Amino acid sequence: MLASIVLFAYVSLRYSEPISKHITEVNKAYEDAYGVMSDTVANIKLVKANTGEDYEASKSFDVIKGKAMGHLEKFWKSSRTFFFYQDLIVSAMTLVSATVIVILFERGVVEVGQVVTFIGYLNLLRSPLHKAGDRISHYRRWMATVRRGYSLLEEEAEDYAAEGKIDLRYVKGGIEFRDLS
Description:
This protein is mainly alpha-helical. The chain has helices at 2-47, 53-106, 112-153. The protein starts with a helix and ends in a 28-residue tail after the last helix.
């Protein structure tokens, strides 16, 4: 039984790592998609180019469909694998333990009340194991999100006072095209 619990903990730690990796990729893909959407929609409104709005919106949705959904599918696949192995270990532990207690009952080592009590305790053990596995998975996803947040905070800020930058206080609202050839 202790070996099953150790195996359960190992599997929970081992298979929750890909979940963490995929949730990081999903976050990045959504950031890309919403960054494109935010930039393009703001630019469209700025120049009143309503004719290009559908194109720009479709470009954002292509990023969501292409990148984010692919990573999200990998995330769900990793999650299904994670929960499958957890359930397999708990079921095997229950089956082996129940078989041992029935054999002990047939040999007269334990009585009916002890068998019922043991099976009851065995069923009570399933819930904390699943909750522990869920907490491990949740913690890994949370840490992936925190790591992504820290990586965004570590990015260098753009220097708006650098030489050659346009001072937006003097923009008059006109559009000028240069060097189009």
